[in-house]
Design goal:
With 248 residues, the chain is of the alpha/beta class. It contains 8 helices and 12 strands. Strand 4 (100-105), helix 7 (116-128) and strand 5 form a beta-alpha-beta unit. It starts with 7 loop residues before the first helix and ends with a strand. The structure holds S-adenosylmethionine.
């Protein structure tokens, strides 16, 4: 197993502070809230800054696990954060000794696992924390989606940060078709002060058929494969791969 992720985008507080401005509540969180209806307990693996985690905790028992203290600190401080059990831990190895009605990994957290061994370990963690009737959901970008085939990609956009004002967020990425690894750099410039922060990372793209085999090996079965968070079925060109399932 590779060593625990030391991704500066999440570990470094000066970079983690931009996560919420760059990643707003969206249809992924709406989908999870709907899926959680009826669930009395939820485990959020790779919970990050915990916007979804805290919302889920309004009416149920919720544990959020993430190795990045800088992200967890933001989660703890948010409204409703006091209702969440926050655990500094690794989704590949954490064992909480309890089971949940729903296990989620959102924000493409599954893609931080860069080796098959790490993916298998994360799927095993899902399996050991599911109640017999519990369900899981996660998302991973589809390598078959046309835009992801752009070998090099760059973008610049403006964001509004609650305390820092307007931020210019830039992204540069390079996708290696042979390995499915996307290497990227995210940069944030605070327009009011000119300060600039940047960090590099990598994520892995996995085809649906490969994922399907890994999940079977982990003792998981998939009830539905979605291709986006609007709930459309997966097809080979879908933007996302989103399995919803349970213990086999
Ligand atoms: C893109 S963020 C997603 C955060 C959150 N789930 C969301 O939807 O906003 C990916 C998260 O995965 C976390 N992460 C990285 N390595 C991890 C690991 N081994 N186990 C659990 N989480 C990990 C990062 O610290 C980061 O918070």
């Amino acid at each position: 197993m590779s060593k625990i992720s030391d991704d500066p985008l999440y570990r470094d507080p000066s970079l983690a502070q931009f996560y919420d401005a760059a990643n707003r509540w969206g249809p992924d969180f709406d989908f999870c809230m709907t899926l959680a209806e009826g669930a009395q307990s939820v485990l959020d693996l790779g919970c990050g800054t915990g916007e979804l985690t805290a919302a889920l905790a309004a009416t149920r028992i919720v544990t959020g696990v993430d190795p990045a203290v800088a992200m967890l600190d933001i989660g703890r401080a948010r409204p409703g954060g006091d209702r969440v059990e926050w655990i500094e831990g690794d989704a590949r190895t954490v064992r909480l000794g309890k089971r949940y009605d729903l296990v989620v990994l959102t924000g493409h957290a599954f893609q931080v696992f860069l080796t098959e061994e790490d993916q298998r370990a994360a799927l095993a963690t899902i399996a050991v924390h599911l109640n017999p009737a519990g369900r899981f959901v996660f998302d991973t970008r589809n390598p078959g989606f046309q835009r992801e085939r752009n070998v090099r990609h760059s973008s610049v956009r403006q964001l509004e940060h609650q305390e820092l004002g307007v931020i210019e967020a830039s992204g540069e990425s390079h996708y290696d078709e042979a390995t499915g690894v996307l290497s990227y750099e995210n940069g944030y410039r605070v327009l009011a002060t000119g300060e600039h922060f940047a960090g590099r990372s990598k994520i892995l793209y996995t085809p649906r058929d490969k994922l399907s085999g890994l999940m079977r090996d982990a003792g998981l079965t998939v009830d539905a494969w979605y291709g986006d968070w609007e709930g459309n079925p997966f097809h080979t060109q879908s933007r996302e791969i989103i399995p919803v399932g349970r213990l086999a």
